[in-house]
Amino acid sequence: MFKEDTLKNEVILITGGGSGLGLSMAQKFAELGADIAICGRTEKKLEKATEELKKHGTEVRYYPCDVRDYEAVGEMIKGIIKDFGKMTGLVNNAAGNFLSASEDLSPGGFKAIVDIVLHGSFNCTHHFGNYLIKQKEKGNILNIVTTYAEDAGSAFVLPSACSKAGVLAMTRSLAYEWGTYGIRVNAIAPGPFPTEGAWTRLFPTKKFEKKYLEKIPAGRYGEHEELGNLAAFLMSDMAPYITGETVTIDGGEKLSGGQFNFIDSVMSRGKLKMAFKMLKMKG
Is the pTM here over 0.85, yes or no? Predict the structure, then answer.
């Protein structure tokens, strides 16, 4: 599908690139010739991911950074530009999520997700966008949102739903505003793609997982390679006229309504709230 040099001469930062979908996208970008920067809060995880990514033969560096910290993000972007000589692409992938009845949310729990997802995406986008505008360079920004960021929303993940909706609004706003600078801003809305971390937090039992699978018309979960291919296409010169777009990749799952609305049919509300509290204690 792609030529080996599809992303050659690109320098792409993937936030939350040390594991999960972030690492999978970084793998695809490196495979197609891009130099890679990844960031996250856990240095050990970043070190391991960097070694994996280096097998593709491109330059790879990691940067321990909390995307919630605007000043720290600015220093990271400066470091990437110094180390690589430039930065051409950004993937806002860092996120957080957990299940909770909305009436049981604490202000701190709500704020934690908003800070990572919405503020973190703004922090990285603002610094990178200003760099491109100042240097009069074109660039690409790709935001990872969710299928419930638009239209339906979703029960039991209110902080994530609000945050991702904000990121989606930012995507479209900046695609228009920054189009004049040659900056493309797009989003991907992934459905269920199993990852080690998020999967255990959002699907505590086999019953939950089975019920969820039943609502996907394709009858299966997504494969990381599929998401990587889509991200690579949107970050490449093959999509120069695509901006302000959100591409859903979910096997048709979005058509059934809010992503986690089905949970209400698994067990009583009281039992659900007990299950959510147990999940919170675990992790």
Answer: yes
